């Protein structure tokens, strides 16, 4: 049985929406057509992937497994299509993902010195998509910040850098040059607590399920707008904080906060010589020992 990727995309839409009507609207097709395609997929698989009962549309155990496997499969198919189209143009190219605050120019210069005929493209990424661009083929390599889901990825550590806490200009701590994690125990963190385990271990809002809801935030700019408005604090790598300098938000060194690891990543199954050579160029030009890492101002 050959798996139909179109049916698989339809399945993912329903699995993510858990509603046939919303999924059909998202896919721009009629709901009866979508229902028939899902039934056809279930016939192909010999298993029901949705439980259509009084409680609404729910995933069955088979559906949960299919969703887990479908997402990387669809991303790989999309990546394959992009690479084939790029190869058909007859010009070698390499797309490098990078995050704000990280300078990739030295690696690009070193790489193009040995590969002058390769067209190097840059792709600005965010915390939300710096891994996704690798899986769906938008980037061949990407400079990422840990922690990430490294499943299926090859990674080469580059350097670590300090992290700072961002507070509004009128905050009680804003006049200090450094703070400790305990000083932030009563603050509201505008990000996943697991991203800052040192804060998570002392946070008052995590005791007794008192943590206010944190809205979905996709961009650093959104996060800093909320900080400036007094909605909470956030922790950023030092270079990111420097990239987004603004007068109403103050970066503070946190004495007992671990550094952020910056790493080069690419899909492990790729065997491209260009990827290998760029990884070496990045290691030669961007990597630096811990002792040489920049530090934020201190007392």
Walk me through this protein's architecture.
This protein is α/β, with parallel strands linked by helices. Helices cover 37% and strands 20% of the residues. It has ten helices and eleven strands. The protein has helices at residues 5-17, 20-27, 31-45, 61-88, 105-114, 132-135, 197-200, 220-228, 238-243, 273-285; strands at residues 50-53, 56-59, 93-98, 119-124, 141-145, 153-161, 163-168, 178-179, 234-237, 249-254, 260-267. The strands form three sheets. It has a five-stranded mixed sheet with strand order 4-3-5-11-6. A four-stranded mixed sheet has the order 8-10-7-9. The longest helix is centred in the N-terminal third of the chain and has 28 residues, at 61-88. The radius of gyration is 23 Å and the shape is flat. The termini are far apart.
Radius of gyration, CA atoms, in whole angstroms: 23 Å
> Helix coverage percent of residues?
25-40%
Number of strands: 11
Query: How many H/I helical runs?
Result: 10
Strand order of the largest sheet: 4-3-5-11-6
Strand content: 15-25%
Please, what is the average pLDDT? 89
Weakly predicted, low-confidence segments:
290-294
How many strands, which pairing sense, and closed or not: the largest β-sheet?
5 strands, mixed
How would you classify the quaternary structure?
single chain
